[in-house]
Each structure stands twice: as C-alpha cells, then as structure tokens.
Description:
This protein is α+β, with helices and mostly antiparallel strands. The protein is 47% helix and 11% strand. 46% of the residues are buried.
Amino acid sequence: xxxxxxxxxxxxxxxxxxxxxxxxxxxxxxxxxxxxxxxxxxxxxxxxxxxxxxxxxxxxxxxxxxxxxxxxxxxxxxxxxxxxxxxxxxxxxxxxxxxxxxxxxxxxxxxxxxxxxxxxxxxxxxxxxxxxxxxxxxxxxxxxxxxxxxxxxxxxxxxxxxxxxxxxxxxxxxxxxxxxxxxxxxxxxxxxxxxxxxxxxxxxxxxxxxxxxxxxxxxxxxxxxxxxxxxxxxxxxxxxxxxxxxxxxxxxxxxxxxxxxxxxxxxxxxxxxxxxxxxxxxxxxxxxxxxxxxxxxxxxxxxxxxxxxxxxxxxxxxxxxxxxxxxxxxxxxxxxxxxxxxxxxxxxxxxxxxxxxxxxxxxxxxxxxxxxxxxxxxxxxxxxxxxxxxxxxxxxxxxxxxxxxxxxxxxxxxxxxxxxxxxxxxxxxxxxxxxxxxxxxxxxxxxxxxxxxxxxxxxxxxxxxxxxxxxxxx
Length: 474
C-alpha cells in the first residue's frame, strides 16, 4: 500500500489538505504509557485479546463496556486499540468535522495487503476528488441500466428457487452473477469460480490473526486472490478505455475523469473496482441474508411487504410470472425499505469501523493521543437500549419519519456516515427491492419453528449453517 505521503503525491495539488505527519499507519504509534489513563486490559501475553474477539466479538465488546464504560482500550491484532462506543462516538468519528480521523490509516492494518486505495480507504481531498469522479457510475442513467440488469438476472435465478435451500450460498452466487452483469458488463465465464474464491479469500484474510502472507495462511490466500483480481481487472480497464462507452459500472469507472479532466490512473481504477466489487458482493450478500431470515421468521411482516409489492407492480402477469419492478417505482416501496433498514439494524454488514487519530482529541472525559488506533462499534449502537426500545425485537416501524427524526442521527449507521457514507447505498436499496419483488410475487418464505441460526460475526456477518429456509410457491 502506498504510504500517505506517496498517495498525496499522486493526486491533484490544488486544494490538497495535509493529512498527517505520519507516513504509514505503523509509524508514530503512542506508547503504552501514553494511553495508561484509558481503562482496559492487555489480554493474554503476545496475542492480547485477538482470539477472544474473533471467537465472539459482540460478547467481548459487551463485557468490556460493562467493565470499563464506553471508552476503553484493548490489545489485539498486534497493537492497542481504543474503542469509542455509542451514537455520539459514531458522530464524532464518521462526521469527522475537525478532520481528526484517518480512514486510510485506520483500515490500513486490516486491508493494507488486500484492498489498498479503495474509496473507503482514502482521506480528505483525495477521497473527495475520487468520490466525485466515481459518482458518475451512480447517476440516473447508469442506475436505470443496472435496474434492468438486476430485474432480468434476479428473475432468471429466483424462478428456480422453489423448495428447501441454504439461502446464503444461493444469494452469494446470485450477487456475484449480478456484479458481473451490472458492474463488469460481461457474460459470466469460466473465471467466475476463481473470482468468487479470490473475493472470499481476501475478505477472510482481513481478520486473519497472522498478518504476514506466510505459506498456507489465510493472509497468503488473500494476497494471492488480490494478485489474480488485479491482473484480471487491469486487462479489463485497458479494454474499456480502447472501446469507450458502456453503461456498466466498470466502463463508467474506467473512463471517469477528475476535476482537471484527467482520467484516473489504471491501477487506481483497478483498486476502486476491486474494493467496490467486494463491497457489493459480500455486504449485499450478508444484508440480503439477514433480511430473508427476518421475513421468514416474521411472517406478518413478510405479508405486509408482499402486499406493498403487489400494489406497486400489479402482481404476476397472465402467465403467473412476477412483473419487473420499474426503476421509477423504487421509491414507492416505502414499507419494504423500512423492513430492510430494520434488518440492517439487527445485523449490520460492517459491525465495526476502524480509524486512526491524526490529532489529539478528547472524548468521554479521556484524552486520546495523536497516532492512536480507534474504532466505533456499529453493532453495539444498533442494539443499545439508549437508542432503541426492545432492541432485540424486529420492528420496522422504528423507521417511520417521525421516529427517525426523534432519534440520534448516528444511532443507525450501517452505511457509515459523513464524507465516507457508502457511495453505493442506493444501488444496495435497489438490488434488495428488486430481489424481494421477484421472490414475494412467487413464493412464501418459511423457516422451521423457533429457527435461529448461529452467525459468524466478523468480518462480514453470515449464518454458519447457510440459512436453512424453504420457498413455497404461492
């Protein structure tokens, strides 16, 4: 990964912000004495709390918060981290009004070898300039194109889903196919399995206890996956620039220009595409799975969403086939969106978010020195009784306009917030709405009575049993 100083030199000079005196996330780390006043413990010798966190991160966090409060330190993944917990902490870190926190250097230890220079990992002017260039891929024209591709792709696959199934692997395959169509604009060929494996290996490597790509380790598999994807995406970027045009996301990225009219360097296009493909592939897979679980185990809400979808689409056609959801009708599915938001509250696809303090600051009565790794806990905030009544109950009515207005703005942050708010969040809403429109016009989703699968919490939540459900034809 390029150092901060190097990445600064790659971007336009006008209006640049000096981000930090640190050239790399491993430099300028505060000493143990510098954070001695912050409550917490070191965990086990050498490994700290790494394995405890990985075994059950939510229980680990709850225990630390009960013991130390909403600001605490823990030693894991090779260094000290300070947790800042709650909606106020989310606002401080995500809104980042005073430019205290670096996303690049926060995610660096986690994604350094895997997803460098993805949009989420850029800071300040570099982030703003590239985000503006890439936003062309989410304008109405391309989004309308994606809508058509999503309707046709989802329709073909969902038509074969009748009967018992493990939903997670099925939706993971579908989201990858959709990414090939909407994102890459290519028919899915024999490289599909290799691409899928590369993404899986990279995501799993992001929380591997061994951070060096030694032979036979998760990190080595992740690094190898990145090398394969970089080669594949580099060839595709060069091809798009020669051919020009195209409404798919990759073509939009490949020909995107910065404020000075210059196209992004090929390697940066590749890094952006690599990161966004991962985000769309894995986070939507996780989000769709948690949503389907909630609909299967809350049949009254499933029926309400079905009624709304039937009213908007007109229901199946004369041959009994689900009608497509028109791009112009996406906004009419208000209840459907509320149900999805509640599913995202229950199981956020990114449960925690790291940053690095590049300035000294105070929070919760504690002084945190410059250079310190910090993180917010999205999952905890989404389940806190401070912000949610009966937080373990599935209740989409939490997202009526009046309740949203009355609640802390940063109590619900599945897409992040501030300048780093997920660029593709409207694409995620669109894909989920099209998916539910196709499913609920054809099937009733059922699960065994009392069914509650165990979820792998990190790095991106997924049910350990694949989510065992049944689609019954209406």
